[in-house]
Amino acid sequence: MSLMLGSHMSISKGISRSYEDTLNELNANALQIFTKNPRGRQSKSLDPADIARCQEFQQEHHFFCAAHCSYLLNFAQSFESDPWPNESLIDDINRIDAVGGQAVVLHIGRKTGLGDEEAYTNIVQNIEYVIQKTSDKSTWICLENTAGQGTEVGYRFEELGLLVKRIDHPRVRVCLDTCHAFNAGYELRTPDGFAETLSAFDAHIGLDKLALFHLNDSKKELGSRRDRHEDIGFGQIGMDGIMNVVRYAEKNSLPMVLETPMEQMSYHDQIDKIKAAL
Q1: Which pLDDT does position 111 carry in this prediction?
Q2: Does residue 145 have a pLDDT over 80?
């Protein structure tokens, strides 16, 4: 059993600083970062000195660190005319590997006028291409579940499982966002409801494919299919529901990363609140 808990962190002062702030300011041991601007196509090279400091930190502390990919990526589309999305994911994998991280989290995309089969085929082909081009890396590619807004891919476990099984590669795993799952109709608030959600995940995807949690409360109700994050314990999931997830994650040594809006409490205080409830 191991509690791996933290939050999304800024890299404005360097990635090594985001590691240090996770340790010193949050008293935490897991983090998620953007390795570059998530809303643009241009990116700066990583600083070699910063990379070296990250590697030294990881050798000493062994934190979990994931990169969140660009918001501009839509892996449901064909990239024949524009290879940039694939290249952007490849770049994130190379960057997070360089700074001692273990995973990249991917918003899979939207169907946007495509039929299911065409969208799925594009996703599988695009991810297989990225895996091939990063075959020297062990970095996980974590498909994130969605709330089900519009034509988002992956709000049902059946769909995520279909993609994971078609790609069929040990580096492809799932990031389970608690707010998104709740908004998609999966119950987390009661022990029985959470057990049923885990059972559905296992049946369609496999719990061995669960790599990490995005730990977020929800402003919107169960099954709303509207993605609105809330601070821990202040939303519709509530503290009891969040702690169902936390205890399971701790028991199974799965990392948890907060992406809450910090409207009620800071990340530091939310992390302390979770620890106090264990």
Answers
A1: 95
A2: yes
Residue 43's pLDDT band, with cuts at 50, 70 and 90, is: confident
As given in the structure block, the two tokens for residue 109 are: 């995309």
List, for residues 198-232, the tens digit of each pLDDT value. Answer: 999 999 999 999 999 999 999 999 999 999 999 99
Q: Are 268 and 25 in contact (CB under 8 A)?
A: yes
Task: Compute CA distances 267 → 99, 176, 223, 257, whole Å.
Answer: 23, 19, 26, 10
- Helix, strand, coil: what percent of the chain each, to 5? 40, 15, 40
244 φ/ψ angles, rounded to the nearest 5 degrees = -55, -45
Return the pLDDT at 102.
Answer: 98
The dihedral through the CA atoms of 88, 89, 90, 91 has a sign that is positive
Both structure tokens of 227: 């993605």
**Interval 84-100: pLDDT, tens:** 999 999 999 999 999 99
Beta strand 217-218 pairing with 229-230: antiparallel
Gap between the Cα atoms of 259 and 148, Å rounded = 18
How far apart CA 6 and CA 65 sit, in angstroms, is 9
Q: Specify the length of the chain in residues.
A: 278
Report pLDDT digits (tens) over 243-266.
999 999 999 999 999 999 999 999
**C-alpha distance from residue 203 to each of 158, 175, 181 (Å):** 9, 16, 16
Partners of 68 in the beta sheet? 105
The count of other CB atoms within 10 Å of the CB of residue 261 is 13
**What's the rounded Cα separation, in Å, for the pair 248 and 250?**
5
The one-letter code for the residue type at 248 is Y
